[in-house]
Write a structure and sequence with these properties.
This protein has 682 residues and is an alpha+beta fold. Helices cover 51% and strands 12% of the residues.
């Protein structure tokens, strides 16, 4: 472009007086109207494409202008300074044009952003409105579902049938014209009738309670009257004592018993006298009586008539009978066996009563030809015992009195002479007949004053002195045996329901919280006990006998299962139970492979005196089982657990231990210290 053209071109100068809203409106100063220029107003009338074309054209013109100024400066003419100044002014005008275009571009950008923001706000408002509508729809759907699933309480009420309702309900409740055509009104009317009936029944119930109270008061008055009669009757009985003594009434039964006692064999007579004397002197709850056929006993006491004629006649009759019938050898042996095992017609019954109302009935018999005494036992309880499968052998009459004294099983006769008598009639062992005849225990012979030679030399006391020397000890053992078996029976009933009963006197032996629990309690046979691998040390040392009772307890906590096989001696609690343990957790462990299991066995077997409880120690077994649960808790909680596994530990540590392990065997602290409540090593 030439310099003349540039001079002729008049660039458009735009004045920006402000972009405020006040600049957009006309200002009136006095009578003259002044228009204020605003780029925002101009921006609305300008075309962006034209501005872009103007920008390109201005850039090209500015580039050419700079090139011309450069040429003029390099030529160095005299008139070039004036022309350069003109071109510089023109360049400034072009720069001003570019600045304005730049401002317009920024204003367009801001306006576009504002429009975009307004559109977003509208979209957000619409989206929020949509969400509100969707929430309302979901709420309405839930309410509809609740209404559809709603079940009224009246559906659970057994209402009377419709026919009975119309027959029994009054008209003001039934309203037949309204309810017969409207099921809803019919249901409401039936509910009203049900409410009315229940109100009536409630009134009847109150009246019945009032009448019951009156009857109870009258019963109490009658009871008081009857109880007031007891002192009067007692006074009458006390006043009649001299009369009874004068008429010998209290001694009538004693006299009859003494008359029958004359026909008792000597051992049973010694037993009767000694038991009666001991009962009068030491134990008022002990009673003794005689039962049996007195006439048959009298017939045995009569001497046979010594007459030759009778003997000859009997011999002739026997010869005739033998000629008529020839008995077999087996029949003769059976007759001889029955004759040899014949009991005396009379027997002595001893009733040993306990404080809880239970009674131990002992029936003593005398085998005349064997010269030994036998006994049978029977137990009657004051209250009904709870049913327990594992307690079946506790009160079994055949084994109840076994091992009352050490190794006294009562299966073999204590009389050495009987062995030769048995050989003659073909009796292999006396144990085959104990169910029918009774058990010939050694203590039974001692109570009857009978004593037979044994391998061990003993005193030579006989008769009444021998019976008296054993009476007190034997009666105490019998009473303890009954009480211990009854206590075990009740404990076994709880153990079968997975409950370990701990008495109040023994609560201090254990902490308040024991997590391990008894899962199973069963009985087992001697053969099953012998076949267990972890019971072999007990079997090999001879601590398990066939006469003992055997049980299996299963204690669980989480995935750990502790099996405890128990040997219960018949002389419990004098002889404590013996435990053998096997733990199934991360493999099988026993006392032979795990020192801590051996320590747990020691806790219940060796340190049993701590678990004995109050005398006579019938709680020992349950305390041992509770101690096993406690030891299993300590064993599992002090065992190292994998901390890399996420989630809670299987056995969280709840017991307070001074040291978790000690020594090269890494023994755990199984001893519980009361009342501090912590566990320590022994």
């Amino acid at each position: 472009m030439s310099s003349d053209a540039l001079k002729k071109r008049k660039p458009k100068v735009i004045r920006n007086e402000g972009s405020t809203p006040e600049s957009k409106r006309n200002r009136v100063e006095g009578d003259q109207e002044v228009r204020v220029y605003s780029e925002e107003v101009e921006l609305e009338s300008r075309d962006p494409n034209q501005d872009y074309a103007l920008y390109k054209q201005t850039c090209e013109d500015l580039a050419k202008l700079m090139a011309e100024i450069h040429e003029l400066k390099t030529s160095g003419g005299k008139d070039s300074a004036t022309e350069i100044e003109e071109k510089r002014l023109m360049g400034c005008i072009h720069f001003m044009t570019l600045k304005k275009l730049n401002r317009l571009a920024h204003m367009r950008l801001k306006k576009g952003r504002d429009q975009t923001h307004e559109a977003k706000q509208k979209v957000d408002a619409l989206h929020l409105q949509l969400q509100n509508l969707l929430y309302e729809v979901m709420h309405l759907q839930k309410e509809i579902s609740k209404c559809l699933e709603f079940k009224s309480k009246h559906e659970e009420i057994e209402l009377v049938s419709v026919d009975e309702f119309y027959q029994e309900a009054p008209t003001e409740i039934s309203r037949p014209p309204l309810t017969k055509d409207d099921p809803h009104q019919l249901t409401l009317a039936r509910l009203d009738w049900e409410l009315e009936q229940r109100k009536r029944l409630a009134e009847k119930y109150k009246d019945s309670l009032a009448s019951k109270e009156k009857i109870l008061k009258s019963i109490e008055i009658k009871k008081e009257y009857l109880s007031s009669l007891q002192p009067g009757l007692n006074a009458i009985m006390q006043a009649s004592l001299p009369v009874q003594e004068y008429l010998s009434m209290p001694f009538e039964q004693t006299q009859k018993q003494n008359e029958v006692a004359r026909h008792l064999p000597p051992p049973l007579y010694v037993l009767l006298v000694q038991v009666d004397a001991y009962g009068q002197a030491c134990d008022k709850s002990l009673s003794v009586s005689i039962s049996g056929d007195v006439d048959e006993a009298k017939a045995l006491a009569k001497p046979p008539e010594d007459s030759q004629d009778d003997e000859s006649d009997s011999d002739a009759e026997e010869e005739q009978n033998t000629k008529r019938r020839r008995p077999t050898l087996g029949g003769q042996l059976d007759d001889k066996r029955r004759e040899m095992l014949k009991r005396h017609p009379l027997s002595v019954c001893v009733d040993l009563k306990c404080k809880d109302g239970s009674v131990l009935h002992l029936f003593f018999y005398y085998l005349m030809n064997l010269n030994i005494m036998t006994v049978k036992a029977k137990v009657s309880t004051g209250t009904e015992l709870p049913g327990a499968v594992s307690a079946g052998e506790l009160l079994n009459p055949e084994t109840l009195l076994n091992c009352l004294y050490t190794k006294d099983l009562g299966t073999e006769t204590p009389n050495p002479a009987n062995r030769y008598q048995f050989d003659k009639v073909g009796i292999v062992t006396f144990g085959d007949y104990v169910t029918e005849l009774g058990h010939p225990y050694i203590w039974v012979q001692n109570l009857g004053g009978l004593q037979f030679p044994t391998d061990r030399p003993e005193g030579t006391s006989r008769g009444s002195s021998l019976s008296a020397s054993h009476m007190e000890t034997t009666m105490k053992l019998l009473r303890n045996r009954l009480q211990s078996r009854l206590a075990l029976h009740k404990q076994f009933a709880s153990l079968e329901h997975s409950i370990i009963p701990v008495s109040n006197e023994c609560q201090h032996l254990f902490p308040a919280k024991v997590v391990s629990r008894l899962a199973k309690w069963t009985t087992m046979t001697y053969q099953e006990y012998v076949e267990l691998p972890f019971t072999q040390p007990v079997v090999n040392t001879g601590l398990a006998q066939e006469s003992d009772l055997y049980f299996m307890a299963l204690i669980e906590r989480g995935t750990a299962r502790l099996q405890a096989s128990i040997v219960l001696n018949p002389r419990y609690a004098e002889v404590p139970p013996l435990f053998s343990l096997s733990l199934s957790w991360k493999g099988e462990r026993s006392g032979r492979t795990d020192d801590n299991l051996r320590a747990m066995e020691s806790e219940v077997n060796v340190f049993k005196s701590e678990l004995q409880g109050p005398h006579p120690g019938y709680q020992l077994l349950t305390n041992q089982l509770q101690r096993l649960c406690l030891c299993l808790d300590v064993y599992l909680e002090t065992e190292s657990q994998d901390d890399s596994v996420e989630g809670p530990l299987e056995f969280p540590r709840e017991k307070m231990c001074l040291r978790t392990v000690r020594g090269p065997n890494r023994l755990k602290p199984f001893k519980y210290n009361h009342p501090q409540g912590f566990f320590s090593h022994r």
